[in-house]
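Fold this sequence, please.
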Amino acid sequence: MTRHVLILASSSPRRLALLGQIGIVPDDVRPPDIDETPAKTELPRPYARRMARAKAEAVPVPGSFVLAADTVVAVGRRILPKAETIEEARACIDLLSGRRHRVLTAVVLTAPDGRRAERLSESVVAFARLTEAQKIAWLALNEWEGKAGGYAINGAAAGFVRFLSGSFSGVVGLPLFETAQMLRGFGWAVP
C-alpha cells in the first residue's frame, strides 16, 4: 500500500506541534497566501469555514492529502482580529476581560482522490476580569502577535482562563479529535 503525502497548509507552528502530539508529521508545510479579510457582514462560523477552504484550495498538491484550518475568536457576531499591533491586542484583551467568547476552528482535509471533509470545532472560553496591571504585564510579553483574538491559550493567557468548554486543541488552533477522525475516514493511519 502506498503512503500518500500529507501537506499542512498553514504558517502556524502551533498546528504543526499539535499534529506532532498525535504522532503525525506532515511531509511538507506550505503557508497559503490568501486575503483573510472578513466580508462586511460575514458571521464568525461562515468566515472560519470560508478561510479554511480558501487555505486548502490555495495549496493544491495533486495526489496528496492537504490539511488546512482557520481559527476565529468571536464575541457575539463580532470577529476579533489576528492582532498585529499592540493597539489591536489591547482592544482584544479589553473586550475579552471578564467575559465569555467563542473560539471556532474550521478544518478542511482534501484527499488525494479529491474528496473533501470539513469540521467545525466550537469552544467557549471565559476570561477573568483583568486589572490594568495584568493587562500591561501581559501585553509586554508580545504573545499576542498574529494570534486570533490577540491571545494564545497555551501561553501566559492560560492564567486568565476561568472556564473552557470544548476542545482545548481547537482553541490552540487545530481540534485534534476532529482532525484524526477525518484522516482515519480517508484511510490515513493515525497512530
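The domain at 6-185 is CATH 3.90.950.10 (Maf protein). The chain has six helices and seven strands.
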